[in-house]
Amino acid sequence: MRMLTATAAAGLVLLAGCGGGAPSDTNAGGAPTPEKRTLTVLAAASLTETFGELEKQFETDNPGVDVVMSYGGSSDLAQQIVNGAPADVFASASDATMKTVTDAGLTNGAPTIFAKNVLEIATVPGNPKGITSFADLANPDLKVVVCAPQVPCGAAAQKVETSTGVDIKPVSEETDVKNVLGKVTTGNADAGLVYVTDVTAGGSQVQGVNFPEAEQATTNYPIATLKNAPQQQLAESFVSLVTGEQGQKALQAAGFGTP
C-alpha cells in the first residue's frame, strides 16, 4: 500500500513538473495568443476616411491582425500591383484602373462593385468667388485645380468637359482628390473638382457646389482580392466586410452611392 502511495505521489510530482510553465502561445489569462498577421490593402484616396473606419473594425474582429492601408491615385496603385508590389486587396475608384490589374491576370476572381461616387466642386468656406455651376470653372480669373487625366477623378472631369463643351484651364493637375482638396483648403486654389465624399470629409474647411452634369460621369468603385495575396483568407474577409451590411452603411454615411 505504501508503494502504491509513493508511486502516485511521484506521478503527481511529474505532472506538476510538466505543467510548471505557461505555454509560449498563451497569454497571462491562459487564452491562446492571437497569431500576428498583416493584411495589406491598396485603396483609392477618396476611400481614406471610410476605409480607416473599417480598418479599425476589422482589426477588432480579427485579433492579432494589423491592417496596413496604402492610399493613392487608383492609376498609380494599379501600376504598383502590375509591377509586383505585394498586397492582398485592391479597391479602385474606377473600372478602368481595376481593368489594368484584371488584364494582367492579377485578381483572384472578378472584382465586385461596392460603391459609386460623383464629382462636386469644392470651394473655400463662403464661396467668395460666387461659383454656382460647372461652366463657372472656365472663368480665367479663377484658380481651379483638378485631378490628372489618368486618375479616375480627372477622367470623370474630362468626361463632363467633353459632354458640356466647357474648357477648364486648371492651374495644376494633382495625383489624387486629396491633393486637390488640399490646394483648396490651404487657399492655393479658388475651386477644385473632387468627389461628393471628399467635400463631406472636408467638413467646415470647404464648401460644396453641386452641378447636375456630374451625373454624366458617375464613378464605380470595384474591389478585388489579389491573386498572389499573402493573406488570401483575410483578404476575402475584408472584402466581405466592405461589401456587407456594415461596410455599406459606413459608405452611405460618408456620402457614397451603393450598387
From TrEMBL:
Protein name: Molybdate ABC transporter substrate-binding protein
UniProtKB keywords: Metal-binding, Signal
Matching InterPro entries: ModA (IPR005950), ModA/WtpA (IPR050682)
Protein family per UniProt: Belongs to the bacterial solute-binding protein ModA family.
KW Secreted (keyword) present: no
UniProt keyword Protein biosynthesis, yes or no: no
Stretch forming the signal peptide: 1-21
Gene3D superfamilies: Periplasmic binding protein-like II
